[in-house]
What we know:
By secondary structure, this protein is an alpha+beta fold. The chain folds into five domains: 6-92, DNA Primase, Chain A (Alpha-Beta Complex), CATH 3.90.580.10; 106-234, Alpha-Beta Complex (DNA primase DNAg catalytic core, N-terminal domain); 238-336, Dna Topoisomerase Vi A Subunit, Chain: A, domain 2 (3-Layer(aba) Sandwich); 372-432, no CATH class; 440-576, DNAb Helicase, Chain A, CATH 1.10.860.10. It is built from 26 helices and 16 strands. The strands form four sheets. The protein has a five-stranded antiparallel beta sheet. Strands 13-12-14-15-16 form a five-stranded mixed beta sheet, with helices on both faces. The protein is globular and about 90 Å long. The chain starts with 5 loop residues before the first helix and ends with a helix. The relative contact order is 0.07. The model is unreliable at 427-436 (pLDDT under 50).
Amino acid sequence: MELISESKINEIRNSADIVTIISSYIDLKAQGKNFFGICPFHDDHTPSMSVSRERQLYKCFVCNKGGNVFKFVQDYENVSFPEAVKKVADKIGIPLDYSPTPTVSSKFKEDYEIMEYASKIFQNNLNSKDGLKAKEYLKERSITEDIIKEFQIGVSLSERKYLYNALRKKNYDLNKLDDLGLINKNGLEGYDRFTDRIMIPLTNLEGKVVGFTGRIYNGEDKAKYINTKETNIYKKGNILFNYYNAKNYIREEKMAILVEGNMDAIRMYSSGIKNVLALMGTTMTKEQVEILKKLRVPIILMLDNDNAGEMATLSIGDELVKNNVPTKVVRLEGAKDPDEYIVKMGITKFQDTIKHSLNYLDYKMTYLKNNHNLNNTEELVIYVKQVLEMLKDEDNLTKEITLQKLANDYGLDLDILRKEVTFEAEKEKKVMLVKPKRDKYEVCANNILYYLMSDKKYMKIFNKRLGYLKTKEERYLVEEIEYYIKCHDNINLADFISYAENDDKIREMVNNISGLIMENELSEEVFLEYIKAVNNILSKDNIAKIKEKIQSSNDINEQLDSINKQILMAKKRIEAKKEV
C-alpha cells in the first residue's frame, strides 16, 4: 500500500460516488433513500444488496458482504486493493500513477528468478539460427510474432545440456534445478528435461512464470506434450492457462471460454477471441472452480470433441452449477478441438458456435435424453428425477418453463412435478439458512466497534462509560481507531475500511464488522444500550472469576480478603458506569 498514499486514497474515495460506481457493475434501483440490487457475491434472485449514497457504503443482507467503493470493486473484479483504487480513479478521471507489479513470495524468490531466466533462454533460442525450424513451424500454424512475444513462446534445443550449462554458469544449485523440473539430475551432473520442443511458459495468476509445456514440432515419434512436474511454485490445479492475459478481456466480454489445451487457447487468442482460458486437461480442481467463480461471468465449456471431452463437460458443468457459476456449452462438430476447428472451418463459423452456445441445463437434458429409452417407464422415471434434481439450483422461471415442457412432452401432472421440486428446494433452503449463532457479547461488541469507526464522538462516550473490550484483537482495533482519530481529527467507516487494508491484524475484522451496516441512523441512545449490555456481561464474567478463585483457595483468610477486594472493585465499576 506504500505505492498509493492514504491522502490520495481518501481523495479518490471522497470523489467517487459509490452508487455510480456500483451501477457500472450491477443494476441498482432507488428504494427510499438507498439503492438496491442483486448481490453479485452469492446466488441472489431478489435484490438483497443495499447501497447508501449518504454513507458511501454497501451491504448485502443475505451474505453480509459490505464495505466501501474500493472493497466492492476489489471483490467483484478479484483484484488487489491498490488495483481497485486505480480502477475507481480511472472511472472518475483522477490521474493516478500506479502500475500493479506481480507479487513474489520472498521464500521462493530464487525459484521465480530461475524460471524467468529459463524462459528468456528458450525465447532467445527461437530467435537464433538453431530455432529457425521451430519458428517456421509456428508460422505454418499462423502464430504471429506478436503472439509469440505475448505468450513468450520459445524453443528448447536438441543439445542435451544446453539449458543445464546456462543455468549452472549462473551458479544455481543443481538440486534446486532438479526440484523445479528443468533439469534431470544424474549424480553430480544433470541434463535438460526439455529438448527439441516448442516451449510455452505457464504463468500463475499474477503473471509469473512457474512452469512450461514442451510440444513436439518436428514430427518425431515421442510424447506430444511434456509438462513441468509439480513444484513449490507450480501446482497445476491452482492455475488456468492464459488467466493473466485474459482476465481483462473476460471482464470486457462478460464471459470466459474454457478449453482443454493451451494450443487451443493460443489459436483462439491469436484469432481475436481473447477471453479464453485452458485447463491443460479434462479435470478441474476446487481451486480452479474458485478462480472461475471469482470472475463472476458465465463460463462457456468448449472441451474436445471426444468421449473424454464429453464426460469432462458433464463433470465440470455439474461442479460449476453447484457453485452457482452460470454455465454454457459448445460441442464442436467436424473437428477434434477448437484449434483444428478454426483451421478447418474458419473464425467466422467458430464465432457463430459461441453465439449459439447452449445453456448447461439444456445441454445436459439433451445428453440424458440420448442415453435413456424414454419409451420405457422405468427409464423415463429415472430421466425425470434427474431433471428435477438439476432444477433445484435454477431460478423460478427456468424451473417453471422446464416443468411445463416435461409435463407436455410426457403427459405428466404439472402440479406433482412442481411439488417435487419445491419440496427438495425448501428442504435445502432450511439447511442453508442455519447460521452459526453469535453470543450476546459478540453482537454488542461488534456494534460498538461499528459505531466507533463511524463517528469520533462515540469514542469519547466509550472511554467514559466502558473503555475496555474482552479480546486482545478488539482492544487492538480500538487503539487503531483512536490513533486514526488523533491523526485525522475525524473518522468515518468508508475511509477507515481503506485504512485497515494496511494492517493484516485488523483488515478481516473491519471487513466483517462493515457487514453490520445498518439501515437505521446512528443513535447515541442505541450505542449506550450496547455499552450497558457489555458492562453487564463483563461484570458477570468478573464475578464468575472471583468464585472460581475462591473455590480454588484453601486459606479461609485469603478467601475473605479476596472476596472483600473483588466486591469493592465490582462496586466501584458499577458506580462508575451507573450513568449508562
